[in-house]
Amino acid sequence: MDLITTDHDISGEIAAAGYSLVRAGELRIPDELQQAWLSLLIDYADLPADEYLPGGATYRYRRYGRFRFSPETGELERLPHEDYFQSADINRVTGGIIRKFAPLLDGAFANPFLNALIRFDFAQFPLDAEHAAGDWEVHAHLIRITADARQLGHPTPEGIHRDGAAFVTVHLAELMNANGGDVSIYDDDRKLLTSFRLEQVMDSYLFNDAMLWHAAAPIQSIDPAHAALRSILTFDYHHRPAR
Questions:
Q1: Residue 189 CB-density burial (10 A; 0-12 exposed, 13-18 middle, 19+ buried)
Q2: What is the sign, positive or negative, of the torsion defined by CA atoms of 162, 46, 81, 78?
Q3: Is there a contact between 90 and 162 (Cβ–Cβ < 8 Å)?
Q4: CB of 180 within 8 A of CB of 229?
Q5: Span 64-90, pLDDT tens digits
Q6: H/E element holding 5?
Q7: Distance between CA 59 and CA 144 in Å, rounded?
Q8: Spans of all domains in the chain
Q9: Residues facing residue 64 across a β-bridge
Q10: Which terminus of the chain has a smaller tally of CB atoms within 10 A, N or C?
């Protein structure tokens, strides 16, 4: 099995600070998975518009899908598509409403890179024995933000928020002609802990969503004659032990 590896102590940083920033150069991705990653990137050109933006704006495009993940076997199983919901207390802009997003394309569910990255990310979480066992539900999101001379491109969701998961991981997929997009991490009292910018494809951050809040700044075009874009691949991990 092709594996993504790193020498970065991601688990230790998450245990100590709640988050870890990992630059692309710290990740070792085998050639076969690099090719699968390039294949997945093609899907970003075919993302439907997010219909839930404030004021009817048109700067965000996305798909999402659900997996069941078994840590004990490493098995990933595609789950039926469902509508998406976040409570208003963690998402003040589009929380509290049921949102309908298009599913990932069939090829994305089977993509070796996406599958390997889900497993790699999970392996970095500092889990006790109870949470290391039992199934997890993983939500995979492909999201593209655009900006032009008429409008900024806002992240999803706007403002300081939580995603409502146990852990969340974010990986930069594309960045073109874009200023902004700085990520900010906050403690449970929403006090700013740090800010950084994802600059290279596969620059990543992983964090304890139950412990921290986060936000990303809007993007704008460096050259206003051309559109800007910033795309991410992000996973939400929810513990779903058998009852």
A1: exposed
A2: negative
A3: yes
A4: no
A5: 999 999 998 999 999 998 776 554 454
A6: strand 5-6
A7: 8
A8: 1-136+229-243
A9: 103, 141
A10: C
